[in-house]
Amino acid sequence: MRFTDDTEDALGFVVALVNTEPRASASGDDELSTVDQLDWLLEEHSYSGRRDGDETELDEVRAVRTRLRRFWTLTRDGAAAQVNRLLKETKATPQLVRHDQLDWHIHATEPDAPLAQRMEVEAALAFVDVIRGNALDQLRRCEADGCDGVFVDLSRNGSKRFCSLRCGNRMNVSAYRERQSEQAEVADEPTPEQSAG
Ligand SMILES: [Zn+2]
Ligand SMILES: [Zn+2]
């Protein structure tokens, strides 16, 4: 199913955040290990509100990243409990707001609340929609070998398997090579040394 634009944006941000982890990122390194990298991530997603720009803030965001990844493994009931706990703890107060170029959407924290807290609450509100819509199965993990990437499958037929084009292409190439080498093995049966490469 599709969600409202603000929910899809929020989920998109959570995916981008979680996929900065090593084994999920494009570089294979932790892409959220410096304040600069956090700046880039926020800029890419036009993230507004309070910024401290220090190591404490970075550490808090990294902790949020770890907690948000768990939503890709939780049951629906587990996810609901997690969302409720978070909204209660942060005394979240959902309000419709309009700012910058953005139409009415929900904020549940003040703009001057710490960045990590705003991120987590915003994610929780998006997960509210996912849980209510019974769409937790759209939170998927990449099927490519050696990739821990996550994504939200918004495709019409729910057929998305990979976190990125990069992973999709990589797996297509390796499936192609596998077919080629199987064919080569059949063709080269009498000379086994040729099938080794
Ligand atoms: Zn906003
Ligand atoms: Zn992947």
Keywords:
mainly alpha; Jann2411-like fold; 197 residues; binds zinc ion; two-stranded antiparallel ribbon; elongated; 6 helices
Bound molecules: zinc ion
Strand content: 5-15%
- The gross shape turns out to be elongated
Number of H- or I-type helical stretches? 6
Q: Summarize model confidence as the mean pLDDT.
A: 92
CATH topology: Jann2411-like fold
Report on this model:
It is a single chain. The protein is mostly helical. The protein has a single domain, classed as Jann2411-like fold, CATH 1.10.3300.10. It is built from six helices and four strands; from the N terminus they run H-H-H-H-E-E-H-E-E-H. Strands 1-2 form a two-stranded antiparallel sheet. Strands 3-4 form a two-stranded antiparallel ribbon. A hairpin with a 2-residue loop joins strand 1 and strand 2. Helix 4 packs antiparallel against helix 5. The longest helix is centred in the last third of the chain and has 23 residues. The site of one zinc ion has 8 residues, from loops.
Write the layout of secondary structure elements.
Elements: H1 5-18, H2 35-44, H3 55-69, H4 76-89, E1 95-99, E2 102-107, H5 115-132, E3 139-141, E4 150-152, H6 165-187
Antiparallel strand pairs: 1-2, 3-4
Helix pairs in contact: 1-3, 1-5, 3-5, 4-5
Offer a quick outline of the entry.
The protein is mostly helical and 197 residues long. It is built from six helices and four strands.
